[in-house]
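Sample pair:
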Amino acid sequence: MLIAFMRCVEPLDALIALDAALRGGMIAKEMHARLRGNRNGQLRQLLNRANPKARSPLETIARYELEEAGATPEAGAELPIGELDLLLGRLDIETDGHEFHSQRADWEHDRHRDQWLIAHGYTPLRLTARQVLAHQTVELVRPVAQRLGWWPDCASRP
């Protein structure tokens, strides 16, 4: 059923479904064996890009758009402070949906994380759900990543 769905939707929507299915243990990367033949080439490519560490559609959208722009963020990077949404070099890209970032305790937790990250040489960059859904991820991330030397076209890295 997932394969039929993936054939009917845009690649980004298929990737969102794949990430969720992998994270939920509903499918495995071994699904490749069922995707033989020329007509499944794009589906195999999407499966290669799918990541079970994506915890939300916002993370998948941001990762997909950054990858399409030539960057290779790491999803679900583990640090002592916790799991990051996306890590590009030492730029922590957080996709803040309303559900997990709207209460005072959530806000304080996010500030504590940001302070820890800065103290340990990382730069946190928080994107709102509205920004991600409006497909502004690349335009917001690229200038910061370039300034820090973490965008792919930067000649030298810090």
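The two ends are 46 Å apart (CA to CA).
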